[in-house]
Amino acid sequence: MIEAGHVLVAEDRHASLVGVVAVQKMDCGDKFDLAQLFVDPSAIRTGIGRALFEAAVTLVARNGGSRLSILSDPFAEAFYIRLGAVRIGEAPSEAIPGRRLPLLEYAIPNRHK
């Protein structure tokens, strides 16, 4: 994903890493997966998460994507919904057997294309 240019990072004013986002093209048409969105706890509620998400949306649009699939942590679901994502179901966690996670989808607006 790094070689493809699908990973973006956020730094604070001291050049310390405070967040990362990565997207990955899925096998089905023009859909991408939000493979990673992490914000350092010290930077939560500063706008870094929103900025990284918006940068990921722009990146997906520039690469021909029209939808972004998001397998969300349950505690982050409200964040993605506030940004315009819609819950479309649940999917199994890749990390914890038996755990189900919210599955969301974000339609890339035309303004990003």
Short description:
This protein has 113 residues and is of the alpha+beta class.
Morphology: globular
Kindly report the CATH topology. Answer: Aminopeptidase
Given helix and strand content, the structural type is: alpha+beta
Order of helices and strands: EEEHEHEE
How many helical elements? 2
CATH homologous superfamily caption: Gcn5-related N-acetyltransferase (GNAT)
Task: Quickly name the level 1 CATH class.
Answer: Alpha Beta
Largest sheet geometry = 6 strands, mixed
Can you give the mean pLDDT? 92
Strand order, largest beta sheet: 1-2-3-4-6-5
Q: Please state the CA-atom Rg, rounded to the nearest Å.
A: 14 Å
Distance, first to last CA? 21 Å
What does this protein structure show overall?
With 113 residues, this protein is α+β, with helices and mostly antiparallel strands. The protein has one domain: 3-Layer(aba) Sandwich (Aminopeptidase), CATH 3.40.630. Helices cover 19% and strands 38% of the residues. The chain has helices at 48-62, 77-82; strands at residues 7-11, 17-25, 31-39, 67-71, 86-92, 100-107. It has a 6-stranded mixed beta sheet with strand order 1-2-3-4-6-5. A hairpin with a 5-residue loop joins β1 and β2 (17-25). The model has no long low-confidence stretch (mean pLDDT 92).
